[in-house]
């Protein structure tokens, strides 16, 4: 049996591998700009996932006095910063479809990881 941290780190690793494959595919199928848009969106998604995980881990380990307020402030701050980054990227002319594909990397990984895990377990 694997621990939760191990599963989460494996999903993050799976996300990075899928991001790399999707970026390369985007470069060759569409254009380098499209591939770069996928890559940037994926990096934002993976970074957001790491950031959210660290907030929750800090909340659970530090025993913050007002945990609810701490979590709400951190959550809103994280969303605000990501929104600003996305607006700047859109103003700079990033491909929005590529960006959205990259931003969807975590849900894609969460759907693909169990399938790969089951195949690996059946292969043993």
Would you mind describing this structure in some detail?
The protein is mainly alpha-helical and 124 residues long. The protein has one domain (4-123). Helices cover 88% and strands 0% of the residues. The protein has five helices and no strands. Helix 1 runs antiparallel to helix 2, helix 1 (4-29) packs across helix 5 and helix 2 (32-62) packs antiparallel against helix 3. The longest helix is centred in the middle third of the chain and has 31 residues, at 32-62. The two termini are 14 Å apart. The model has no long low-confidence stretch (mean pLDDT 86).
Note the topology:
Blueprint: H1 4-29, H2 32-62, H3 67-91, H4 96-103, H5 105-123
Helix pairs in contact: 1-2, 1-5, 2-3, 2-4
Features:
124 residues; mainly alpha; 88% helix
Sequence of secondary-structure elements:
HHHHH
Mean of the pLDDT scores? Answer: 86
Tell me the number of structural domains.
Answer: 1
Largest sheet: none
Indicate the overall shape: flat
Helical content (DSSP H or I, runs of 4+): over 70%
User: Count of DSSP E strands?
Assistant: 0
* Beta fraction: under 5%
Low-confidence stretches: none
Helix run count: 5
CA radius of gyration is 17 Å
The SS-based structural class is mainly alpha
- How far is it from the N-terminal to the C-terminal residue, by CA? 14 Å
């Amino acid at each position: 049996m694997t621990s939760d941290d191990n599963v989460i780190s494996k999903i993050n690793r799976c996300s990075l591998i899928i991001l790399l494959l999707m970026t390369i595919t985007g470069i060759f199928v569409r254009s380098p700009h499209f591939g770069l848009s996928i890559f940037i969106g994926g990096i934002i998604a993976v970074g957001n996932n790491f950031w959210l995980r660290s907030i929750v881990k800090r909340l659970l380990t530090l025993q913050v006095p007002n945990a609810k307020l701490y979590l709400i402030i951190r959550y809103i701050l994280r969303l605000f910063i990501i929104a600003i980054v996305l607006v700047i990227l859109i103003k700079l002319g990033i491909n929005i479809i590529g960006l959205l594909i990259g931003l969807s990397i975590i849900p894609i990984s969460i759907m693909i990881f169990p399938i790969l895990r089951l195949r690996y377990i059946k292969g043993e």
